[in-house]
């Protein structure tokens, strides 16, 4: 039993932490940077809003899909709008109004809806990569799990960086044969990744539901047969998604550079 706890439960908990924790942290950073860009409000910032409009629409679609799959009704869906007087919060570019249930399922629904831009955006990026670039983003992280090893945070980040470099090299090499598709892919991925942020409201609403989801997974892990399959699912999902988190990190860096450029332009004009 102790060996099972260490090998299966321990590795799955750590892998799940990387699967959930990393995108939540990066999503919070993305939102804060995006909010700063919007708050400046100069013409350059407004041009940026229109530039990433597709990403905003994908963000709001993630919320709407989250509401739909949890059995809630979408009351209003605004994929992109600027300076609307009926906006629920200041400086928002889109919003979704929906019903929500009560009790434990209501909290879980909130978590799924509020994190919708992250998981829905990730799925869209993976599909775009598959159909526009013609290859899947994957990593060697699954090898760690199958070997019974438990990579630490630095090993995870190193593997993440290595995967990103190799994938970008493959993309660059394939650009000669992909033509216009690679540029469309780069633009769409940047827009979507830039708008996979998580606002303060979303984060606060999702906390209880995320705790319930994590708690349920913990309970399932202690059931040997079911726990094994939960561990396998988590191990398979992470390699598929964590390259998306690298793209989110790149979006953080690019948007940070844009923010400083915008502040510089405002200062000199």
What's the arrangement of secondary structure elements?
Blueprint: H1 2-40, H2 43-51, H3 53-69, E1 74-78, E2 95-98, H4 103-114, H5 116-133, H6 141-146, H7 153-178, H8 180-194, H9 200-221, H10 224-268
Antiparallel strand pairs: 1-2
Helix pairs in contact: 1-9, 1-10, 3-4, 3-5, 3-8, 4-9, 5-8, 5-10, 7-8, 7-10, 8-10
Quick synopsis:
78% of the residues lie in helices and 3% in strands. It has 269 residues and is mainly alpha-helical.
Could you please describe the fold and organization of this structure?
- This protein has about 270 residues and is mostly helical.
- The chain has one domain.
- Helix content is about 80%, strand content about 5%.
- The protein contains 10 helices and 2 strands.
- The chain has helices at about 1-40, 45-50, 55-70, 105-115, 115-135, 140-145, 155-180, 180-195, 200-220, 225-269, and strands at about 75-80, 95-100.
- It has a two-stranded antiparallel sheet with strand order 1-2.
- The chain is globular.
- The protein starts with a helix and ends with a helix.
- Mean pLDDT is about 75; it is low at about 145-150.
């Amino acid at each position: 039993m102790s060996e099972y706890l260490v090998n299966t439960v321990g590795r799955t908990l750590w892998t799940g932490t990387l699967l959930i924790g990393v995108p939540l942290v990066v999503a919070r950073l993305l939102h804060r940077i995006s909010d700063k860009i919007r708050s400046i409000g100069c013409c350059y910032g407004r041009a940026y809003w229109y530039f990433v409009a597709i990403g905003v629409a994908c963000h709001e679609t993630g919320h709407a899909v989250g509401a739909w799959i949890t059995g809630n009704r979408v009351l209003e869906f605004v994929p992109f709008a600027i300076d609307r007087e009926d906006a629920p919060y200041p400086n928002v570019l889109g919003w979704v109004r929906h019903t929500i249930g009560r009790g434990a399922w209501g909290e879980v629904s909130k978590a799924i809806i509020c994190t919708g831009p992250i998981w829905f955006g990730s799925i869209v990026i993976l599909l775009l990569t598959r159909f526009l670039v013609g290859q899947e983003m994957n990593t060697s992280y699954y090898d760690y799990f199958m070997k019974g090893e438990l990579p630490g945070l630095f090993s995870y980040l190193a593997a993440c960086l290595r995967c990103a470099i190799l994938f970008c090299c493959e993309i660059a090499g394939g650009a000669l044969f992909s033509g216009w598709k690679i540029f469309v892919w780069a633009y769409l991925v940047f827009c979507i990744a830039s708008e996979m942020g998580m606002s303060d409201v979303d984060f606060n609403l999702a906390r209880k539901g995320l705790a319930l989801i994590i708690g349920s997974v913990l309970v399932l892990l202690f059931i040997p047969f079911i726990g094994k399959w939960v561990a396998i699912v988590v191990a398979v999902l992470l390699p598929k998604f964590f390259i998306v988190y690298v793209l989110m990190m790149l979006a953080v860096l690019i948007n940070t550079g844009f923010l400083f450029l915008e502040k510089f332009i405002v200062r000199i004009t």
